[in-house]
């Protein structure tokens, strides 16, 4: 298996919220994208692991992504341990992505920053030949993704770059709303949570619009990166 981009999230719905528009755009450009969820989101106040699984399956259909794996690590208790790093290394070596998209380096949910460090370390370790992992009883070859980009989610972090998602804003919202139990639903009898409010749903659009305003497009998603980015030329820039 060789894909272009592996998007990783601590919880099912993180990828859709943080970079769903970018994923939809990559898929439209013919790129191979896969999703890796670290936990089932089983501590979520609303819904259950079961509903979350069904919702995650609907969301990838909306985005046109064919592969979604869940590592079943414990929600709320992610740690940067050897055991968890190796589980992620196995997936990186299986999918062989050039680019990894990972959680925000700092966010409201403590799992997000923990996942960002865990994923960065796993990407590095995955390139070391003496770190041995197996797939179907055979030893996996080392593989190091060339870049890790962290998608901005809840907190207003300063992006290092943004991706124009103007044509994919609608599909992003549709993918997020596939998580019926998690987001705003006026008919729901479940307890209110910060992400289930009408305000939060609206914030997805106005925050993307604001990044678009600052960068010269209608809607954008922001990312940070710990490695300096170079442009091959000026052709892809929104002027
Ligand atoms: Zn999350």
Automatic annotation (TrEMBL):
InterPro entries attached to this UniProt entry: Bacillithiol_biosynth_BshB1, GlcNAc_PI_deacetylase-related, LmbE-like_dom_sf
GO biological process per UniProt: bacillithiol biosynthetic process
Domain of life: Bacteria
Coiled-coil intervals, chain numbering: none
GO MF, one annotated term: deacetylase activity
Listed Pfam families: PIG-L (PF02585)
PANTHER family from the UniProt entry: N-ACETYL-ALPHA-D-GLUCOSAMINYL L-MALATE DEACETYLASE 1, N-ACETYLGLUCOSAMINYL-PHOSPHATIDYLINOSITOL DE-N-ACETYLASE-RELATED
Name of the protein in question: Bacillithiol biosynthesis deacetylase BshB1
């Amino acid at each position: 298996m060789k894909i272009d981009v592996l998007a990783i999230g601590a919880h099912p719905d993180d990828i859709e919220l943080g970079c769903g528009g970018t994923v939809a755009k990559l898929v439209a450009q013919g790129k191979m994208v896969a999703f890796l969820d670290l936990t089932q989101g089983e501590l979520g106040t609303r819904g259950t692991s079961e509903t979350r699984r069904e919702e995650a399956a609907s969301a990838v259909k909306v985005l046109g992504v064919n592969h979604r794996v869940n590592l079943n690590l414990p929600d709320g208790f992610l740690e940067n341990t050897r055991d968890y790093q190796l589980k992620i290394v196995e997936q990186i070596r299986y999918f062989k992505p050039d680019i990894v998209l990972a959680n925000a380096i700092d966010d409201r949910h403590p799992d997000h920053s923990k996942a960002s460090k865990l994923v960065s370390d796993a990407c590095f370790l995955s390139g070391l030949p003496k770190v041995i992992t197996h797939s179907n009883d055979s030893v996996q070859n080392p593989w190091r993704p060339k870049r890790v980009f962290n998608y901005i989610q809840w907190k207003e972090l300063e992006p290092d770059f943004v991706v124009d998602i103007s044509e994919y804003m609608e599909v992003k919202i549709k993918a997020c709303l596939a998580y019926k139990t998690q987001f705003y639903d006026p008919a729901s009898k479940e307890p209110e949570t910060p992400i289930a409010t009408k305000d939060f749903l609206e914030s997805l659009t106005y925050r993307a619009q604001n990044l678009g305003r600052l960068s010269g497009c209608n809607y954008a998603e922001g990312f940070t990166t710990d490695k300096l980015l170079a442009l091959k030329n000026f052709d892809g820039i929104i002027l």
